[in-house]
Amino acid sequence: MMVFSDPVPGREAEYEEWYEETHLPELLALPGFLAAHRWKRSDAAFPGFAGCPQGNVAIYELDGDGEKGIAAMMEAAGSGALHMSEALDLGSLAMWRFDQNGARQVAPS
Fold first, then answer.
1. Whether the predicted model's global pTM rises above the 0.85 cut
2. Do the domain assignments include residue 8?
């Protein structure tokens, strides 16, 4: 699952602290969530390609088909067990789930 987002302008430090100290630990405590890794958009661009509008992406590894993790996340969000931050710009939020398509390949050593 990939979640793209941005902080509310001027609240970047609050957003970073919430994401690392609250949001990721809460999600990773849910059944079905195995791992998470956050990335920040690079200033380096690919000529001829549109850039990503959001500056941040969190990539979550889910167990199996992901249904258990997604269901747990939706339940936790609905019950208030996931603590959201007002430093998160909800207008920038985009979330996608991807299913594995092919085997993981590793570069030769």
1. yes
2. yes
